[in-house]
Amino acid sequence: MIEGNTTILLENGKIEVLKGEAEVFGCRGKYFEAPKGKVLPVYFPEDSEARIEGNYIAVNGSTIPKSWEKFVEEDWNRIFLYGAVDTGKSSFCVFVSHKLDIDYVLDADVGQADISHPGSMALGKRRENAYLLSMFQLISCEFVGSISPMNREARCLRAFKKLVDRAGENLVIDTTGWIHGKRAVEYKLAKIEIAKPDVIVCFSDPPREFSDYEVFEAESFVIKKRDREMRAYIRGKSYEKWFENAREIEVSVDEVKLYFTSLFSGEKVEDEILFSFGDVIYAEKCGSSLNIYSENFDIGGEGLKALKEYYNVVEVNVVSPKDFENLLVGLYSDEYLCPGLIKEVDFEEKKIKVLASTSEKPKRIEFGEFKIENGREVFVRIP
């Protein structure tokens, strides 16, 4: 390998440096492996010998954009990244953390989370041999239960603030690719006001609302874009990893707090009127809502209107107990433990069976907004 040149390692490829040293996104090392869905630019700062398995492309010079190199010529403490999907933000996180010796990254991309799992945000610490963001050490995690911040801004911002408060001054912040529209801009501005970065690095055209901040415009750098199917595949592999050694645990509702659901929070309703519409497994009135759990509750618009008036509620929610099966939840002790999948809700005993890779009984369970079926998300509405 000639000094100053790059070998682009295609997915599933491996490279072992036998003599000399190589670099991927600022990370020096002697062994690199490109997982499925990833392509790695392996740069050789000196003449080297290497063994390569799989497909690769030899390129003259460095493939790292000039704007990236220019950015690391200055010292920055807290860096906020802004850009659309597949613009190179995660790779930039790795590059900057190595080049500027920044130890911590806040991965706030809830859809394509690298440090934790989809549906969460995480604070990670750089490892010296980490050439991918997924290789950073997980330090702290917050569950948000969705793979998009749209319509869940408040919940996401609460999680984001908690992680920012736990981080040190030196920090790189990766974000989602949701940038279009007024609400997306407002969401990013709220994050910026929480994080108070020294600079906003923009991989897409910055909105004019950023004019009061220090902005650095960087080139997008993605060798191979990932389509929707590949992104779904990567999320599926992440779920698989988090549930590798999972086992079923049972928790009593009396011993755990349930957040982001009204399940078991109201007054139980046992009324013959409800049974006239189907087999009711459980029903409860929670404030201005009536929640009915049934597999065959058959009611039309006029019937719903009548129930609202009879029970003096604003909404009536009819939920199939099957909607709980494989619902993604977040398990907490004093800190976040891990994600879980609900396997069964026992309405009579008020107990919940959860599949999770922890032996510790949770003190709090936060409900998500989707189930996992065959590695894919299925969105459900649980009141």
Automatic annotation (TrEMBL):
Regions that span the bilayer: none
Superkingdom in the source lineage: Archaea
Pfam families found in the cross-reference section: CLP1_P (PF16575)
Substrates-to-products reaction catalysed: a 5'-end dephospho-ribonucleoside-RNA + ATP = a 5'-end 5'-phospho-ribonucleoside-RNA + ADP + H(+); a 5'-end dephospho-2'-deoxyribonucleoside-DNA + ATP = a 5'-end 5'-phospho-2'-deoxyribonucleoside-DNA + ADP + H(+)
Domain named Clp1 P-loop: residues: 83-244
Cofactor(s) for this UniProt protein: a divalent metal cation
Keywords, sorted A to Z: ATP-binding, Kinase, Nucleotide-binding, Transferase
GO BP terms, alphabetized: RNA processing
EC category: transferase
MF GO annotations: ATP binding; ATP-dependent polynucleotide 5'-hydroxyl-kinase activity
The EC number(s) this enzyme carries: 2.7.1.78
Biological role: Polynucleotide kinase that can phosphorylate the 5'-hydroxyl groups of both single-stranded RNA (ssRNA) and single-stranded DNA (ssDNA). Exhibits a strong preference for ssRNA.
Designated name of the protein: polynucleotide 5'-hydroxyl-kinase
Native organism: Ferroglobus placidus (strain DSM 10642 / AEDII12DO)
Lineage: Archaea, Methanobacteriati, Methanobacteriota, Archaeoglobi, Archaeoglobales
